[in-house]
Amino acid sequence: MKKGVLLHSDISAVISRLGHTDQIAISDAGLSIPSFTQTIDLALTQGTLDLLSVFDVVGQCTGFDSS
């Protein structure tokens, strides 16, 4: 069993497949996304999940920087 803070299986799967030159974007509502791009929507209701909380957890799992 994978140990860590990330419980969302879809996000965990994406992170596990990241290569050295791959990129992910973490955004709040309103980002224009091409239809061919894989997305994971965490929206439940307005204000229930803030962007920085998601970024912090994903950052802990990947060790990436904020550039």
TrEMBL record:
From the UniProt record, list the reaction(s) this protein catalyses: beta-D-ribopyranose = beta-D-ribofuranose
Read off the InterPro entries from this record.
D-ribose_pyranase, RbsD-like_sf, RbsD_FucU
In short, the EC number is 5.4.99.62
The UniProt keyword set, sorted, is: Carbohydrate metabolism, Cytoplasm, Isomerase
What EC class does the entry list?
Answer: isomerase
Please give the Gene3D superfamilies that the UniProt record associates with this protein: RbsD-like domain
SUPFAM superfamilies assigned to the protein according to its UniProt record, in alphabetical order? RbsD-like
Q: Output one GO MF annotation.
A: D-ribose pyranase activity
Gene Ontology terms: cellular component: cytosol
Its GO biological process annotations read:
D-ribose catabolic process
Among Pfam families, the record links this protein to: RbsD_FucU (PF05025)
- State what protein this is by name: D-ribose pyranase
Identify the species of origin.
Xenorhabdus eapokensis
